[in-house]
Design a protein that fits this description.
3 helices, elongated
């Protein structure tokens, strides 16, 4: 418990002593219309696009597996149940 208290007070002291300029990165602190800022924005958009594409691929793959398993079991893939699926509305 004392070790946790020591580390906590060290972190709190560092946060209180550090000037505000330390927390600003060079891009955020600089000119918002600089080429470095525009490049960073395009990099963020590109990384979000790649991440979204990969996650969309996972979703599509699992939907494909779901439909394939339904077809292998003899059930319809659409939103309605077939007459021999054991249930009805």
């Amino acid at each position: 418990m004392t070790r946790l208290l020591q580390v906590g007070s060290l972190v709190a002291g560092t946060l209180l002593i550090a000037p505000a300029r330390v927390w600003a990165c060079p891009v955020c602190f600089g000119d918002p219309s600089s080429p470095m800022t525009h490049g960073m924005n395009w990099a963020i958009i590109a990384l979000l696009g790649v991440t979204g594409t990969v996650l969309g691929g996972f979703v599509a793959f699992f939907l494909y597996l779901f439909k394939r398993s339904r077809m292998m079991m003899g059930q319809e893939v659409g939103g309605t149940r077939s007459a021999h699926s054991g249930g009805g509305y």
